[in-house]
Description:
The chain is an alpha+beta fold. The protein has helices at 28-32, 54-67, 76-89, 134-137, 163-176, 220-231, 245-248, 279-292; strands spanning 4-5, 8-11, 14-17, 35-37, 40-45, 48-52, 95-103, 117-125, 139-143, 181-185, 191-194, 198-203, 206-209, 236-238, 251-256, 260-267, 270-271, 303-305. The strands form 2 sheets. Strands 1, 2, 3, 4, 5, 6, 7, 8 and 18 form a 9-stranded antiparallel sheet that branches. Strands 9, 10, 11, 12, 13, 14, 15, 16 and 17 form a 9-stranded mixed sheet that branches.
Amino acid sequence: MAITYYEQVWHNGKFIPWNDATIHVASHVVSYASCLFEGIRCYETPQGPGIFRLKEHTDRLVNSAKIYRMELAYSREQLQQAMIELVRVNKAQHCYIRPIVFRGYGEVGVSPLKNPIEVYLLAWQWGKYLGAEALAQGVDVCVSSWQRMAPNTMPAMAKAASNYMNAQLIKMEAITNGYVEGIALDHAGQISEGSGENIFVVKDGKIFTPPLASSVLPGITRDSVITLARELGFTLIEQALAREILYIAEEVFFTGTAAEITPIRSVDRIVVGKGKPGPITKQLQERFLSIVEGRAEDKYGWLTLCAQPVVAGR
């Protein structure tokens, strides 16, 4: 998947060229993974570029920083406005925005408290995360042999780089074995999530998704799908889910900023439903994309349009 990076990067309050966005190898983050980040899509719409749920993504970044005792020098509103400006200065019609907060060059040792907090905002053009045909045809996945972290070991509610070492193991195992993605179970053997996606299951016409207590990241797209499912009149239930429901479900799908709403057509080579995107998945997918692409009324205020004056934090 080819990636085109935008030239201007926001670093601690000012824009710098992409090639200058570097860190020292002795930075705390390199040895100890003391990094938090977000992934935010900016969609091309008839009204110009629109950032999807900017406030909620910023809130999650700030919450992650609070959990890890990283004191940010910038307010939520300043970070939001900086991301709007990032889109504008790069003249991006659509992009994937990556805010990064990490502990930089200072003392070397496990304690991070005397290391400076660095904030970067960067952007690139990114297509469909799980493949160009994934949204239309679905993907083949497996249940991973790697579990998500147990409660009170690592905070799953924080979007921290360290959590993605676990995600890498899940992803690499899946790819090595011929799948597109893996699904991890939690410490109790219940369904958790993919390496970078939340998961939903349709059974008997009802939609189920694991609760946050199943070591699940509180996904922004997950929350959006819950909202849309209820808007469309579906019963949506958050509860612990046994692995075997993946095999007998009528539909299964991933959600995520990168994955959007991606159908799952098989799990462990067992066909899900009819082996193609089901009607509920397709209805949710179309409703979601119609809003974020500016084809339908943005009744929830999810898009922050960047081509006109914007009041950040609305």
